[in-house]
Amino acid sequence: MPNTKQNLKIQYALTGLTVVVFVLKIITFFLTHSLSVLSDTLESVVNIIATIVGTYSMFIAAKPKDKDHPYGHGKAEFVSSAFQGTLIIVVGCLIIYESIDSYMHPGTLHNLGNGFWLLVIIALINITTALYVMRMGKKNKSISLVTSGKLFLIDFFTTITVATGILILMVTNIQKVDSIIAILLGGWVLYDGYKILRASLAGIMDEADLALLENVIHELNANRNDNWIDLHNLRVIKYGPLLHIDCHLTMPWYLNVHEAHVVMDQFTDLIKSKFGDSVEFFIHIDGCMHFSCAICGIQNCEKRQHSFQQKLDWNMENVLSNHKHQLN
Questions:
Q1: Assuming Cys at both sites, which of 15, 95, 149, 196 could form a disulfide with 133, CB separation 3.0 to 4.6 Å?
Q2: What is the pTM of this model?
Q3: Please, what are the domains in the chain?
Q4: For 68-123, how does the pLDDT look when each residue is reduced to its tens digit (9 = 90+)?
Q5: Coil, helix or strand for 74?
């Protein structure tokens, strides 16, 4: 099962760390009076709000199934991620607006050297945190942790961009460089906010995860059991860290109930061995038909009506269709 306790502990630590990063950026802004630093600081405000929302969503997602939520509460993480993405887009628009205004009316900057080194320290904190949190999020199958890690990764790129701009400004003494960097920063923030929002809405709408489907199909093909004569109507839905897999599995019609369940358990055990125990199945068992003999690899089958012709490899096209397969 997903390690929800560990996920929550990491998320609590992130909440505290976002406040630390925010305070460091506030100090940097008051030292430099740089608009690009202020833009980066505004992004940290979003990170604080988003991390708090992410923590709450993980708490909700960790709740067990109940009568009102038979598939669990995992989609709370997608809702949280959508909120985070929306906030990032709003901040990106605000950064661009303020940057254009500053470009038209440039101000005076101060203490750029000290500000630069503070930004380098903040960037190092962000990249270290981002890599660790994203790795743990993928390991524990938590979209909220992955999203939180991406927030820190975005923060790393924005902070290092601002630091580079400050360095260029110190060398060239061209004041408008600060505003140009801030505008580019706003565009970057907008793009990343869109990506996070797009991924979360896909989860809410049960959009097919094509990469995940490809992986499932690959593992089934690579470890094919002869009693798995055919597979169709395959669907994989993500509910937070939980995968829900529906499919129709064709088996020899003459198996008794116990034998059919043994074959089905071999099917589910294979998927769990590759994708973790947090997988829920709804498998409809079909008995083979006369036309199934042509693609059935069972040797010495006493019930065979036609000779075997060729193995039918499963792919994205044929396993998603809602009918039993046969050779033309």
A1: 149
A2: 0.55
A3: 4-204 (1.20.1510.10), 210-320 (3.30.70.1350)
A4: 665 666 666 677 778 778 877 887 887 787 778 777 766 667 788 888 999 999 99
A5: coil
